[in-house]
Automatic annotation (TrEMBL):
The chain crosses the membrane at residues 250-276, 303-327, 339-364, 385-405, 417-437, 458-479, 485-506, 566-589, 661-679, 685-712. The lineage of its organism: Bacteria, Pseudomonadati, Pseudomonadota, Gammaproteobacteria, Orbales. This is Miniconductance mechanosensitive channel MscM. Residues 700-765 form the Mechanosensitive ion channel MscS domain. Residues 266-595 form the Mechanosensitive ion channel inner membrane domain. It is found in: Cell membrane. Keywords: Cell membrane, Membrane, Transmembrane, Transmembrane helix. It comes from the Bacteria.
């Protein structure tokens, strides 16, 4: 098979580029003589020689152009033949698809034919070649324009043989340039056709791959295990070791790769990395010990330690997998030795797995990330890493053998040696997975920070049962299917585990910040206590600052919710991208029809549409994604965007709530459309239900509409203090039907939304949180009223909760029953200051009366707690009032 790569034209392109530069210099040398005439024989001879050289160069370019054109045409014909071959394979696959379940040999034959399909051509080189030819054609056109500017020959030289030769050479030069320009047009045309053919070949190969997934994925690719299986394994193993001369091939491949300078350089660089890793490993262990001693100490701990340990652990685990991958790459270049190439593929496939295992080992060290930084239990980490040596010395070689024989000679030994290696690999994974499960590693952490939840148990059940199912499938002959599904599952687990590590790193950073804030507050409180009392030096020395104990599950709950939402979204996107290639493998569900529904065609006629198992599966998937979006996206909006905007609390809550309803509505409409329930079919039903429910559930609908009005009009907001009916409290929730109020006794009162729209409502903090407090203070009839007013004003001035603007006011408002009644009108910044203000100002009034030897008459004190007006007499307290 010949594929177009562009390297066949390397030397012709270099030669053409050289002549282009030479001709450009020649054109620049000739340009100054545009207006000259040739009247000397020596000058005419020089021009003739230049033309002869230019014509020879153009003729040589014509030859190269013809060779290039013939190569492109041959390549195009080859691609067309490949397209025909692939189309025939596709037709045969479709025709034989219904018989695949009855014959394992037929599936093996079709898979061998798929392995012989051509590789996808690369179109990037064609784009570059077309651009180069266009540039070359532009150069020819410029040179063609310069011909008319050449000097002319005047008599008597014009009538000589040299003059005639000069004119002939100019005509020939013009003809050559025109032919080259035309040839470049032909080259561009053929390259464009080749590009179209390449695109067609890519499309056909993609169709074959989709059809192969559709028809062959769930078909047995090898024979089921029988009583002769072990004998076949030992027979093929001896054949590989002795008959194929594996040792000789490996030694010859090693000698061949060492003769390639680039490969040797890569191996040497990898060995240098391994040497550096060994050199600095002791220093890294010392750094782990030093940082572990500082972890948890509020004055020494720093998130920088965790980040450095994370990066260093990844880097320290990298050199050996890089060397491993380099060796695999070197073996793959020895294409004359098939067994070496197969082993190279296996080594390359095992290198990333080796890297993951080594990273986990560095993380799980006693002073490493898991134990010292994340505070995971030491016993649990040791249980999880119990079979680490098993993973290095068993799993890695088994992966190499499995992937190697999958690429060797049309999977010749996959049914024997490859399947035996896969079964052993699954058994090793069973031991490793059970150990990790017993260690208590969570698969999902809920909002409470706990890993013991339903979703985590379901994920662990899938992960624990997957290797057993893979073993059974491989024994029944579904080797390739079980390999692909188990590989995708393990890759999903690796991504999930990586996100889990990132979550714990962010959680630790928040924990460190919280501890520092609490520690600074503790120091400030200590300084304030020291400033308020005189203490001896000894007492000061013995005064110890206690580090605050912080609960990890309650640290920055909103921030952790934001982090959890982001990571869940990343996990969903990663899973969708990872498993999207498997969509065609589940196309068999399109053939399982569940029910039939009527749908409108574009021309307005009704046609029958079958609802298949695939449609139901997609609908459930859409609903699952919708639920996750409804749970996480509003939190992302609130914590990631809205809190950084200058919005009121009610506005942000309204945007989050409406976005949640919108996502839920769109997701449900999309999900229902897959199972035949679209808007055109249910709009009349919804209209009829709307009318019926409007009469039967009018209060609920009224509350729902009122909730929307509250979200848009915002007469109340989250955090507002309101008084409605005989209830006063703070707004904590605004739902679609009702709003929750928390009163001063911390009781939650659920009030229908309709009441906030139709009834009288007092919002103490709608546009201005400042509230007025009116206190009635008595004095005896013989007291100096001016002195009493001065005492009350001084008390208002000294009270820390009273605002200076608006200014406090004191009035003598009444004289009754031999008592002077004074009224103090002061303002508090917010509702929560009302009770502290009353308590403090009462104390200041009593202190002022005592200092000025004034007495309180009977009744001793009457206080009006109504901030909106004045009442006489003693106030009667009711539940929920201010």
């Amino acid at each position: 098979m010949i594929t177009y790569q562009g390297h066949h034209w390397l030397w012709p392109k270099l030669i053409i580029s050289f002549f282009v530069v030479v001709l450009s210099v020649t054109a620049q040398a000739i340009a100054p003589i545009d207006s000259k005439v040739i009247n000397r024989s020596e000058e005419l001879q020089r021009q003739i020689n230049d033309l002869l050289e230019s014509n020879l160069e153009l003729q040589h370019q014509q030859t190269l152009q013809a060779e290039q054109l013939s190569y492109i045409v041959a390549e195009k014909n080859n691609i067309i033949s490949q397209i025909t071959h692939v189309q025939n394979t596709l037709s045969m696959l479709i025709q034989q698809g219904e018989w695949l379940s009855f014959s394992t040999a037929l599936g093996e034959t079709l898979r061998r034919q798929l392995l012989n399909l051509p590789a996808k051509p690369k179109s990037q080189q064609l784009e570059q070649d077309i651009a180069d030819i266009r540039a070359q054609q532009f150069n020819y056109q410029q040179r063609l324009e310069l011909i008319d500017k050449r000097p002319s020959v005047i008599n008597p030289l014009a009538s000589t043989a040299k003059g005639a030769e000069y004119r002939k050479l100019i005509r020939h030069h013009r003809d050559l340039l025109k032919e080259l320009i035309t040839g470049d047009d032909n080259l561009v045309l053929e390259l464009t056709r080749l590009k179209i053919a390449n695109n067609q070949l890519i499309e056909v190969i993609d169709e074959v791959n989709d059809a192969a997934h559709r028809y062959l994925f769930w078909v047995a690719d090898v024979k089921p295990i029988d009583q002769h299986y072990l004998f076949a394994v030992f027979s093929d193993l001896s054949h590989v070791i002795f008959s194929l001369d594996t040792t000789h091939q490996l030694l010859s491949a090693l000698s061949f790769t060492l003769s390639i300078p680039s490969t040797v350089i890569l191996i040497l660089i990898s060995l240098i990395f391994v040497g550096l890793q060994i050199r600095f490993r002791t220093n890294f262990y010392h750094y782990l010990s030093d940082t572990a001693m500082r972890i948890g100490k509020v004055t020494q701990d720093n998130f920088r330690f965790t980040l450095i340990v994370f990066i260093y652990s990844i880097l320290m685990a990298l050199p050996l997998p890089v060397l491993w991958g380099t060796i695999g790459y070197a073996l793959k270049t020895a294409w004359n030795y098939p067994i070496a190439v197969a082993i190279g593929h296996g080594v390359n496939a095992a290198a990333p797995i080796l890297w993951v295992f080594m990273i986990s080992a560095y993380f799980a060290r006693p002073n490493g990330l898991f134990i010292a930084h994340f505070k995971w239990p030491l016993a649990g980490v040791r249980t999880a890493m119990k079979y680490y040596r098993l993973s290095i010395w068993v799993v890695i070689p088994l992966v190499m053998i499995l992937m190697g024989f999958d690429t060797y000679e049309g999977r010749q030994f996959s049914g024997t040696i490859g399947r035996f290696s896969f079964i052993l690999l699954c058994l090793a994974l069973i031991f490793m997975t059970n150990a990790i499960h017993r260690s208590g590693v969570p698969m999902y952490i809920d909002k409470k920070g706990s890993g013991d939840n339903l979703l985590s148990r379901i994920l662990w059940m899938i992960l624990l049962s997957a290797p057993w199912i893979a073993v059974i499938a491989a024994c029944l002959g579904y080797l390739l299917t079980s390999q692909i599904l188990l590989g995708r599952l393990e890759a999903s687990v690796a991504i999930w585990f990586g996100l889990l590590v990132i979550y714990f790193m962010i959680r630790r950073w928040m924990w460190i910040q919280k501890r520092k804030i609490e520690f600074d507050r503790a120091k400030q409180r200590r300084i304030e206590r020291l400033a308020q009392r005189t203490r001896s030096d000894e007492d000061i020395i013995n005064d110890i600052i206690e580090e605050p104990v912080v609960d990890l599950d309650t640290i920055s709950s909103q921030s952790l919710q934001l982090v959890r939402s982001i990571l869940v979204m990343i996990a969903l996107i990663s899973m969708i991208l990872l498993w999207s290639e498997m969509y065609s493998a589940f196309a068999f569900m399109d053939n399982i029809k569940l029910w039939t529904t009527k749908t409108l065609a574009p021309n307005g006629t009704e046609i029958d549409e079958s609802i298949t198992l695939a449609s139901v599966f997609i609908s459930v998937l859409v609903l699952t994604i919708t639920v996750q979006l409804v749970k996480n996206l509003p939190a992302l909006l609130e914590l990631g965007i809205l809190q950084h905007l200058e919005l009121g609390p009610g506005t942000g809550y309204a945007i989050s709530t409406l976005s949640k309803y919108l996502i839920l509505m769109i997701g449900c409409m999309i999900a229902f459309s897959f199972i035949g329930i679209d808007w055109s079919k249910i709009q009349w039903l919804i209209a009829a239900l709307g009318v019926g429910l409007g009469f039967g559930l009018q209060e609920i609908f009224a509350n729902f509409i009122s909730g929307l009005i509250i979200l848009f009009e915002k007469p109340i907001r989250i955090g507002d203090t309101v008084t409605i009916r005989d209830l006063t409290g703070a707004i904590t929730k605004i739902n679609t039907r009702a709003t929750t109020i928390v009163d001063w006794d911390r009781k939650e009162i659920v009030m229908p939304n309709k009441a906030f729209i139709t009834e009288q409502l007092v919002n103490w903090s709608l546009s201005d949180a400042i509230t007025r407090i009116v206190l009635t203070v008595p004095a005896t009839i013989d007291a100096d009223s001016n002195k009493v007013i001065h005492i009350l004003k001084q008390a208002a001035k000294d009270c820390s909760y009273v605002l200076a603007d608006p200014e406090p006011q004191v009035f003598l408002v009444d004289i009754q029953e031999g008592i002077q009644l004074f009224e103090i009108r002061v303002f508090a910044a917010e509702m929560s200051h009302r009770m502290p203000l009353r308590s403090e100002i009462h104390q200041l009034i009593l202190k002022g009366y005592h200092e000025h030897h004034l007495e309180l008459p009977f009744p001793p004190l009457q206080t009006n707690f109504n901030a909106l007006g004045r009442k006489s007499g003693r106030h009667i307290y009711q539940f929920g009032t201010v």
